[in-house]
Amino acid sequence: MKAYWYDNLAGDQRLAHDSGKEVTVEQLKKLGVYYHQIPNIDGVNKLASDRGYRNRDEIIVSPEKMGDVYEEKVKSFFHEHLHEDEEIRYVRDGHGFFDVRSADDEWVRIRVEKDDLIILPAGIYHRFTTDDSNYIKAMRLFKDEPKWTPLNRTSDLDVNPHREEYVQQYLQRRLPA
Protein backbone atom coordinates (compact mmCIF):
# COMPACT_ATOMS: atom_id res chain seq x y z
CA MET A 1 0.00 0.00 0.00
CA LYS A 2 1.10 3.48 -0.78
CA ALA A 3 -0.98 6.58 0.00
CA TYR A 4 -0.40 10.12 -1.22
CA TRP A 5 -2.13 13.31 -2.28
CA TYR A 6 -3.64 12.98 -5.77
CA ASP A 7 -2.01 15.39 -8.23
CA ASN A 8 -5.30 16.51 -9.88
CA LEU A 9 -3.66 16.61 -13.32
CA ALA A 10 -5.72 15.65 -16.34
CA GLY A 11 -5.09 12.21 -17.77
CA ASP A 12 -6.03 8.57 -17.54
CA GLN A 13 -7.52 7.77 -14.12
CA ARG A 14 -5.53 4.51 -14.12
CA LEU A 15 -2.19 6.31 -13.96
CA ALA A 16 -0.51 6.93 -10.59
CA HIS A 17 -1.29 10.68 -10.32
CA ASP A 18 1.32 10.80 -7.54
CA SER A 19 1.94 14.33 -6.24
CA GLY A 20 5.01 13.14 -4.33
CA LYS A 21 3.34 14.14 -1.04
CA GLU A 22 2.94 11.03 1.12
CA VAL A 23 -0.05 10.30 3.34
CA THR A 24 0.72 8.02 6.31
CA VAL A 25 -1.34 5.13 7.68
CA GLU A 26 -1.93 7.28 10.77
CA GLN A 27 -3.34 10.08 8.60
CA LEU A 28 -5.62 7.56 6.86
CA LYS A 29 -6.91 6.41 10.26
CA LYS A 30 -7.90 9.99 11.04
CA LEU A 31 -10.16 9.80 7.97
CA GLY A 32 -11.59 6.51 9.24
CA VAL A 33 -9.72 4.45 6.62
CA TYR A 34 -8.08 1.32 7.98
CA TYR A 35 -5.33 -0.58 6.20
CA HIS A 36 -3.90 -3.98 7.05
CA GLN A 37 -1.50 -6.21 5.17
CA ILE A 38 -2.74 -9.76 5.65
CA PRO A 39 -0.60 -12.44 4.00
CA ASN A 40 -3.09 -15.31 4.32
CA ILE A 41 -6.78 -16.06 4.38
CA ASP A 42 -6.66 -17.08 8.07
CA GLY A 43 -5.96 -13.45 8.96
CA VAL A 44 -8.89 -12.31 6.82
CA ASN A 45 -11.15 -14.90 8.47
CA LYS A 46 -10.15 -13.64 11.93
CA LEU A 47 -10.78 -10.01 11.00
CA ALA A 48 -14.14 -10.98 9.46
CA SER A 49 -15.13 -12.81 12.63
CA ASP A 50 -13.95 -9.98 14.91
CA ARG A 51 -15.90 -7.36 12.92
CA GLY A 52 -19.02 -9.42 12.28
CA TYR A 53 -18.65 -9.87 8.52
CA ARG A 54 -20.76 -12.91 7.69
CA ASN A 55 -20.69 -12.89 3.89
CA ARG A 56 -18.12 -12.46 1.16
CA ASP A 57 -17.62 -12.78 -2.55
CA GLU A 58 -14.83 -12.22 -5.04
CA ILE A 59 -14.74 -9.87 -7.98
CA ILE A 60 -12.31 -9.76 -10.87
CA VAL A 61 -12.13 -6.43 -12.65
CA SER A 62 -10.43 -6.91 -16.00
CA PRO A 63 -11.25 -6.68 -19.72
CA GLU A 64 -10.81 -10.45 -20.01
CA LYS A 65 -13.31 -11.21 -17.25
CA MET A 66 -15.82 -8.41 -17.91
CA GLY A 67 -15.61 -8.19 -21.69
CA ASP A 68 -17.31 -5.27 -23.39
CA VAL A 69 -18.65 -3.78 -20.13
CA TYR A 70 -15.17 -3.36 -18.59
CA GLU A 71 -14.62 0.30 -19.57
CA GLU A 72 -18.15 1.24 -18.54
CA LYS A 73 -17.76 -0.51 -15.16
CA VAL A 74 -14.39 1.09 -14.42
CA LYS A 75 -15.88 4.51 -15.22
CA SER A 76 -18.85 3.82 -12.93
CA PHE A 77 -16.52 2.78 -10.07
CA PHE A 78 -14.65 6.08 -10.59
CA HIS A 79 -17.74 8.26 -10.07
CA GLU A 80 -17.46 9.84 -6.65
CA HIS A 81 -19.86 8.11 -4.29
CA LEU A 82 -20.45 6.83 -0.78
CA HIS A 83 -22.00 3.71 0.72
CA GLU A 84 -24.24 3.36 3.73
CA ASP A 85 -22.14 0.38 4.85
CA GLU A 86 -18.41 -0.08 5.33
CA GLU A 87 -16.56 -1.03 2.17
CA ILE A 88 -14.08 -3.82 2.87
CA ARG A 89 -11.75 -5.11 0.17
CA TYR A 90 -9.00 -7.71 0.41
CA VAL A 91 -6.81 -7.73 -2.68
CA ARG A 92 -6.06 -11.27 -3.82
CA ASP A 93 -4.14 -10.28 -6.96
CA GLY A 94 -3.42 -7.25 -9.13
CA HIS A 95 -3.47 -3.56 -8.25
CA GLY A 96 -5.86 -0.66 -7.98
CA PHE A 97 -6.46 2.77 -6.51
CA PHE A 98 -8.98 3.93 -3.94
CA ASP A 99 -9.32 7.71 -3.80
CA VAL A 100 -10.89 9.15 -0.63
CA ARG A 101 -11.82 12.72 0.23
CA SER A 102 -9.91 14.53 2.96
CA ALA A 103 -11.42 16.96 5.46
CA ASP A 104 -10.50 19.71 2.98
CA ASP A 105 -12.29 17.86 0.15
CA GLU A 106 -9.00 16.98 -1.57
CA TRP A 107 -8.29 13.52 -2.97
CA VAL A 108 -6.01 11.09 -1.16
CA ARG A 109 -4.97 8.23 -3.47
CA ILE A 110 -4.36 4.79 -1.94
CA ARG A 111 -2.62 2.21 -4.12
CA VAL A 112 -3.53 -1.33 -3.08
CA GLU A 113 -1.97 -4.62 -4.14
CA LYS A 114 -1.98 -8.32 -3.27
CA ASP A 115 -2.53 -9.03 0.46
CA ASP A 116 -3.70 -5.47 1.20
CA LEU A 117 -6.97 -5.12 3.10
CA ILE A 118 -8.68 -1.74 3.21
CA ILE A 119 -11.77 -0.68 5.14
CA LEU A 120 -13.58 2.50 4.12
CA PRO A 121 -16.15 3.75 6.63
CA ALA A 122 -19.79 4.26 5.71
CA GLY A 123 -20.36 7.82 4.53
CA ILE A 124 -16.88 8.58 3.13
CA TYR A 125 -16.79 10.00 -0.39
CA HIS A 126 -14.54 7.84 -2.52
CA ARG A 127 -13.96 6.25 -5.91
CA PHE A 128 -12.01 3.30 -7.30
CA THR A 129 -10.09 2.41 -10.43
CA THR A 130 -7.74 -0.29 -11.58
CA ASP A 131 -4.22 0.81 -12.43
CA ASP A 132 -2.85 0.64 -15.97
CA SER A 133 -2.50 -3.16 -15.72
CA ASN A 134 -6.33 -3.24 -15.92
CA TYR A 135 -6.59 -6.12 -13.47
CA ILE A 136 -7.54 -6.63 -9.86
CA LYS A 137 -9.02 -9.59 -8.02
CA ALA A 138 -10.55 -8.68 -4.68
CA MET A 139 -12.58 -10.29 -1.94
CA ARG A 140 -15.49 -8.17 -0.77
CA LEU A 141 -16.67 -8.69 2.80
CA PHE A 142 -20.16 -7.84 4.05
CA LYS A 143 -21.92 -7.83 7.42
CA ASP A 144 -25.19 -8.81 5.79
CA GLU A 145 -26.17 -9.97 2.31
CA PRO A 146 -23.63 -9.08 -0.39
CA LYS A 147 -24.60 -5.79 -2.01
CA TRP A 148 -22.81 -2.86 -3.56
CA THR A 149 -25.01 0.21 -3.61
CA PRO A 150 -23.17 3.41 -4.55
CA LEU A 151 -24.83 6.75 -3.85
CA ASN A 152 -23.25 9.20 -6.30
CA ARG A 153 -22.25 12.52 -4.77
CA THR A 154 -24.75 15.36 -4.97
CA SER A 155 -25.33 18.31 -2.64
CA ASP A 156 -28.41 16.49 -1.32
CA LEU A 157 -26.25 13.56 -0.22
CA ASP A 158 -24.46 15.70 2.38
CA VAL A 159 -27.55 15.34 4.63
CA ASN A 160 -27.61 11.56 4.35
CA PRO A 161 -27.49 10.23 7.95
CA HIS A 162 -24.48 8.01 7.17
CA ARG A 163 -22.62 10.97 5.67
CA GLU A 164 -23.51 13.21 8.61
CA GLU A 165 -22.30 10.56 11.07
CA TYR A 166 -19.04 10.16 9.14
CA VAL A 167 -18.45 13.93 9.09
CA GLN A 168 -19.15 14.22 12.80
CA GLN A 169 -16.90 11.29 13.72
CA TYR A 170 -13.91 11.92 11.44
CA LEU A 171 -13.81 15.23 9.63
CA GLN A 172 -13.69 17.41 12.72
CA ARG A 173 -10.00 16.39 12.83
CA ARG A 174 -8.22 18.05 9.92
CA LEU A 175 -5.69 16.28 7.67
CA PRO A 176 -3.22 18.90 6.41
CA ALA A 177 -2.61 19.02 2.66
Task: Please characterize this protein's 3D structure.
It is found in: Cytoplasm; Nucleus. The protein has five helices and eleven strands; from the N terminus they run ββαβαβααβββββββα. By secondary structure, the protein is an alpha+beta fold. It has a single domain, classed as Jelly Rolls. The longest helix is centred in the N-terminal third of the chain and has 11 residues. It is globular and about 40 Å long.
Give the helices and strands, then pairings:
Elements: E1 2-6, E2 18-22, H1 25-30, E3 34-37, H2 41-51, E4 55-61, H3 63-66, H4 70-77, E5 81-82, E6 87-101, E7 107-113, E8 116-120, E9 126-130, E10 136-142, E11 151-152, H5 161-171
Antiparallel strand pairs: 1-2, 1-7, 3-8, 4-10, 5-11, 6-7, 6-8, 6-9, 6-10
Family: Belongs to the acireductone dioxygenase (ARD) family.
Keywords: Amino-acid biosynthesis, Cytoplasm, Dioxygenase, Iron, Metal-binding, Methionine biosynthesis, Nickel, Nucleus, Oxidoreductase
Enzyme class: oxidoreductase
